[in-house]
From TrEMBL:
<keyword id="KW-0170">Cobalt</keyword>
<keyword id="KW-0560">Oxidoreductase</keyword>
<dbReference type="GO" id="GO:0008270">
    <property type="term" value="F:zinc ion binding"/>
</dbReference>
<comment type="function">
    <text>Catalyzes the NAD(P)-dependent oxidation of 4-(phosphooxy)-L-threonine (HTP) into 2-amino-3-oxo-4-(phosphooxy)butyric acid which spontaneously decarboxylates to form 3-amino-2-oxopropyl phosphate (AHAP).</text>
</comment>
<dbReference type="InterPro" id="IPR005255">
    <property type="entry name" value="PdxA_fam"/>
</dbReference>
<keyword id="KW-0460">Magnesium</keyword>
<keyword id="KW-0963">Cytoplasm</keyword>
<dbReference type="GO" id="GO:0050570">
    <property type="term" value="F:4-hydroxythreonine-4-phosphate dehydrogenase activity"/>
</dbReference>
<comment type="similarity">
    <text>Belongs to the PdxA family.</text>
</comment>
<keyword id="KW-0862">Zinc</keyword>
<keyword id="KW-0520">NAD</keyword>
<feature type="binding site">
    <location>
        <position position="130"/>
    </location>
    <ligand>
        <name>substrate</name>
    </ligand>
</feature>
<dbReference type="GO" id="GO:0000287">
    <property type="term" value="F:magnesium ion binding"/>
</dbReference>
<keyword id="KW-0521">NADP</keyword>
<dbReference type="GO" id="GO:0005737">
    <property type="term" value="C:cytoplasm"/>
</dbReference>
<feature type="binding site">
    <location>
        <position position="131"/>
    </location>
    <ligand>
        <name>substrate</name>
    </ligand>
</feature>
<dbReference type="InterPro" id="IPR037510">
    <property type="entry name" value="PdxA"/>
</dbReference>
Length: 327
């Protein structure tokens, strides 16, 4: 067990974050100590909370109540009705969590969903999302998004861009950095001594020797061959339509794909409720549930906490791996 608890940031208080934080604590309790970083007034009425002054207090408090490290917001939280007045508070909570984990007061940061439009309109948020802001706070210029579950780990090399822009964005430099960051993270954060990485082709049937595209022949295959010589265990490029069935998945520890849907369709098919968003390449551990604010069901009690629970559990497992501990 790690000595420091996990910081769970509040995210958008008008979304499902506050209620799934409570339900995650009800499931995990003292087994996995974490603290909610946000305004206790935004939590569902009747929530058993223990306000703490220091993250270390969360370890004992979590046995009987949800530990809360207070961060006051200017406005109340009304489910499904985000208030721009709270936007800066959401941003400040993320920065505060990063400061705590960098100081060693938290073992990891787990972030509940934000609404980028609210942050941009309410506080001039200058980043496309959580990941880019976390990278800026950490002072790193390249991070990688991984979606992970017990069944599959996937990494999209290009992420939130139009499919028509993928070919230009998919440079050898970008793919190489993605492969190295993935390789190093599998060792450091997942405890895999000799990672095996499957590399998807860009084109149908991985180009079929140039008949369906030449990106594999001209860029992906030469790069993979060079990186194998530098010590990476790479499989492929593989045809994306045959690399995600059970027998194929048994051959690798993570799959690096070329674009967003190529990676996310298989994992959301296999692990829709318990997939976890992990940011690789940061100097600290960050996980997040793989869903958004879900304004349509906020406050109804229908939100599924499974992905948040999985994100907290994965954060703990990664922290143990970094510490060289097993459990």
């Amino acid at each position: 067990m790690t000595t420091a608890p996990i910081a769970l940031t509040c995210g958008e208080p008008a979304g499902v974050g506050p209620e799934i934080a409570v339900r995650a604590w009800e499931t995990l309790g003292a087994r996995l100590p974490f603290f909610y970083l946000g305004d206790p007034a935004h939590l569902p009425a009747g929530t058993e909370i223990a306000e703490i002054a220091d993250p270390a207090e969360a370890v004992a408090a979590s046995a009987t109540a949800l530990p809360v490290l207070r961060h006051d917001f200017p406005a109340p939280a009304v489910p499904a009705k985000p208030d721009a007045a709270n936007a800066q508070g959401v941003i400040d909570v993320i920065a505060r969590a990063v400061d705590l984990v960098q100081k060693g007061a938290a073992s990891a940061v787990c972030t509940l969903p934000i609404n980028k439009h609210v942050l941009q309109s309410g506080a001039g948020f200058a980043y496309p999302g959580h990941t880019e802001y976390l990278a800026a706070l950490a002072g790193v210029d390249r991070v990688v998004m991984m979606l992970a579950s017990p069944l599959l780990r996937v990494v999209p090399t290009t992420i939130h861009i139009a499919l028509s822009d993928v070919k230009a964005a998919l440079t050898p430099e970008l793919l190489e950095k993605t492969l190295w960051i993935t390789h190093n993270a599998l060792i450091r954060d997942f405890g895999i001594a000799a990672p095996r990485i499957a590399v998807a082709g860009l084109n149908p049937h991985a180009g079929e020797n140039g008949a369906m595209g030449r990106e594999e022949l001209e860029m992906i295959i030469p790069l993979c061959e060079r990186l194998r010589g530098e010590g990476l265990d790479l499989i492929g490029p593989m045809s994306a339509d045959t690399m995600f069935h059970p027998a194929a998945r048994a051959r690798y520890d993570a799959a690096v794909c070329m674009y967003h849907d190529q990676a996310l369709i298989p994992i959301k098919t296999l692990a829709f409720d318990d997939g976890v968003n992990v940011t690789l390449g940061l100097p600290f551990i960050r996980t997040s549930p793989d869903h958004g604010t879900a304004f349509d069901i906020a406050g109804t009690g229908r939100a599924n906490p499974s992905s948040t629970i999985a994100a907290l559990e994965m954060a703990q497992t990664m922290a143990l791996a970094r510490n060289g501990t097993t459990s």
